[in-house]
Amino acid sequence: MNPDKEDPNNHAPAVTPDDDWNGLDVDQVFDSQLPPRRSDAPKTPKMDVNLSRFKAIKPGSHSGISTSSHDEAHSKSQVSMKVNGERLVSEKEEFQATLVMESVQQGDEPSHSNQMSAKPGRFIPGERDDWGVSRHKGSSRWMLYTAAGVIGLIALTVFLSRFMGEETVRKSDKRSLSQLEPIDVKTESIRDLGVAGQLANNHQEAVQIYGQYAQAKSPDDFSKFIYLSDRNTPLLKEAWKATGAESGWMPSGSSSWKTYRDGELIYAELRGVNHDFSKFIACFRYENSDLKMDWKATTGYGTAAFDDLKIGKGEGSEIRGWIATSDFFTQQLSDDKYHSFIVRSPKKDASIWVYTEIGSEVDKDILALFSTSPITGEFQTEAKVILNLDRGAEEILPRQWMIKGLIAANWLDQATP
Predict the structure, then answer these.
(1) I need a labelling partner for 153 at 20 to 30 A (CA). Which of 79, 82, 181, 389 fits?
(2) Cα torsion 363, 364, 366, 370: sign
(3) Which carries the bigger pLDDT value, residue 64 or residue 342?
């Protein structure tokens, strides 16, 4: 591109050496053509206003300008800046943090409340007390008071329910606690409650009796402590085996002791650990007024050992064990005619199969052991039983037995003194 070639579209006049840019009066151009500078316009100055710099400006200092309108505008601007500056300086001097805080502490409203600007996370005086901030009221204290009240209410309820007992009953047509009247309690119930309460206090005596049984070197050392000793001593001599406990050994005093009721029978169980760290459950009951250990229930005595029952031998008239449902059937004992059950030994180290004919009385008695409770909705999968077993037909397997009768749904000695 040739810069010396004349462009007909360029309408700007050419620059000549005669054009003198140095003679241009900048102040004149500024004052006459451009708006006033932002620094010269009237506004509110900052806090650090230096008024001395405004005094240095003199009217008519610009060359070539002498109009009265410029002087008047300039003087008005100077006066406005001076007034605003003096006002801010005075406010700055009047605002003192110590005076404001002193006023707040004395409870007087500060004169410059607009200067107490709200900040995040801070409260205006007065609002702090309304919300409890000044007192630092935490929720943990109220939670503690509530918990203490609930505990006290529960304790009072338990206290009242325990000591009201069975001697009084609320009349149906009365709502006041003072309207209570005694009810008739059968003499047998009172006697039973007395036996159960007395039995519950025999924990230490039961520990001593079981200790004597564990230390015994022969049946004679222990026979006087068992339930119905005269009747059961011959059986004890046949089935008894020494436990191997050393002389003086006793079960722990912290062994569990609980009382139970099975129909008209009231008994207690002592649960603990033997000298060889095996667990035991000893059953105790009263013979007349003396505490005795139910040897049959404690040892799970049976007229035949499970080792003999597994091979189809032994007397099955009184067999104690754990019974549960089973699904083992054979051609002779099919599922369309019989229900199948499995019976485990007291220590659950051996088992046999037993059967009941569907629809028989004994079948109904056994099935009732596994029925669902209409009150609690619970059911058990196995139960303690005393069974009367019979071998049945010769074609059945050695480990298969027929249930002749359900003696009891527990292991207690069914004889009474």
Answers:
(1) 181
(2) positive
(3) 342
How far apart CA 100 and CA 391 sit, in angstroms, is: 107
Two tokens, residue 150:
């609930």
Single out the residue of 239, 234, 241, 235 nearest to residue 213, CA to CA: 241
Q: Which amino acid is at 161?
A: S
Residue 168: pLDDT band (50, 70, 90) is very low
Neighbours of 338 (CB within 10 A): 19
| Residue 251 one-letter amino acid | P
Task: Provide the token pair at 269.
Answer: 């169980």
Contact by Cβ (8 Å): 383, 337: no
The β-bridge relationship of strands 400-408 and 180-182 is unpaired
pTM: predicted TM-score of the whole model, two decimal places? 0.55
| Strand partners for 280 | 272
Burial class (CB in 10 A: 0-12, 13-18, 19+), 29: exposed
Asked whether the beta carbons of 282 and 296 are under 8 A apart, the reply is no
User: 3-state class of 410 per DSSP?
Assistant: coil
Alpha-carbon 113 to chain mean position: 52
Query: Could you tell me if 215 and 207 are in contact, meaning their C-beta atoms sit under 8 angstroms apart?
Result: no
Query: Rounded to an integer, what distance in angstroms lies between the CA atom of residue 401 and that of residue 302?
Result: 15
Q: Which single residue is written with the structure tokens 């003087």?
A: 75
More confident residue, 142 or 330: 330
**Which residues lie across from 324 on neighbouring strands?**
342, 382
What's the rounded Cα separation, in Å, for the pair 407 and 385? 7
Q: What is the pLDDT of residue 104?
A: 46
Q: What percent of the chain has pLDDT over 70?
A: 59
DSSP E strands, 120-173? 168-170
DSSP element (H, E) containing 252: none
Residue 407 CB burial class (10 angstroms; 0-12, 13-18, ≥19): middle
Pairing relation of β-strands 338-344 and 319-325? antiparallel
Query: From CA 245, how far away is CA 273, in angstroms rounded?
Result: 12
**Tens-place pLDDT, residues 119-152:** 455 545 555 555 555 455 567 888 888 999 999 8
pLDDT tens, 185-217?
344 444 556 788 889 999 999 999 999 999 999
**Region 52-65 average pLDDT:** 46
pLDDT tens per residue, range 262-299: 888 899 999 999 999 999 999 999 998 899 999 999 99
